[in-house]
Amino acid sequence: MAEVGFYHLTRSTLEQALPALLGRTLDAGRRAVVRCGDEGRVKWLDDALWRATDPVWLPHGTRALGHESWQPIWLTAGEDVPNGATFLFLIDGMSAGGMGDFERVFDLFDGHDENAVAAARQRWKACREAGHTLTYWQQQAKGWTRR
């Protein structure tokens, strides 16, 4: 079973919060896959990660760029994991089958969107029923607090 962390974004956008989490993933020597809602969001996130300033560089790829197995961070709208990632990031309310194949799963959701919060609650219940270890993280003025 995976450790599934729910990350409640309350003070920053996904575009601001995700690069730091991905940077820590790479610092830990892990690979990541980020599952997006659709191909348009993959393109948006690809652009956003190239513009990220903290960390200043996040090596990543998409199906459009190729060289899947070389990419430390893989962006996708599907369930493919061609880079051997052990960390899974879910955005856009994505849920995932096969979460047990990952060490850690990060479910990021917008705390200012009532529908996103309600959907995250449903994903929490489903993960709990599936027997995953759950953690809940909420943004504070500086960093995250585990609740």
UniProtKB/TrEMBL annotation:
One of its GO terms (biological process) is DNA replication. PANTHER family: DNA POLYMERASE III SUBUNIT CHI. Pfam families: DNA_pol3_chi (PF04364). InterPro entries: DNA_pol3_chi, PolIII_chi_sf. This is DNA polymerase III subunit chi. GO terms for molecular function: DNA binding; DNA-directed DNA polymerase activity.
